[in-house]
Design a protein that fits this description.
Strand order of the largest sheet: 4-3-5
Number of strands: 5
Shape: flat
Distance between the termini: 14 Å
Helix content: 10-25%
Radius of gyration: 15 Å
Number of domains: 1
Structural class: alpha+beta
Strand content: 25-35%
Largest sheet: 3 strands, antiparallel
Number of helices: 2
Oligomer: single chain
């Protein structure tokens, strides 16, 4: 399960947009999940991650934004209201 909103804060307020991208850093055979973001904050997040990589706080590697998709199985059932947000 992932949070239902973007993981970025605007000032003292959390972003209320639903997440659209899973953010990972790929280095060699390893992939590290960093968070989720909406389309509005994608460029801000990219800039911040590049800055943190330069400082050595995040492993160097390619930054990957993967589109989130809604999934429903026999074990995990989605409520129609959940799909409205996506």
């Amino acid at each position: 399960m992932l949070p239902d909103k973007c993981s970025i804060r605007e000032g003292s307020r959390d972003c209320v947009n639903p997440p659209e991208f899973l953010i990972t850093v790929v280095t060699g055979n390893d992939e590290f999940m960093l968070g989720i973001t909406c389309q509005k904050h994608k460029t801000v997040v990219l800039s911040k991650i590049e800055n943190l990589q330069t400082q050595g706080n995040i492993p160097n590697g390619s930054i990957k934004f993967e589109n989130l998709k809604s999934v429903q199985t026999d074990c995990v059932r989605g409520d129609p209201d959940d799909f409205i947000q996506l």
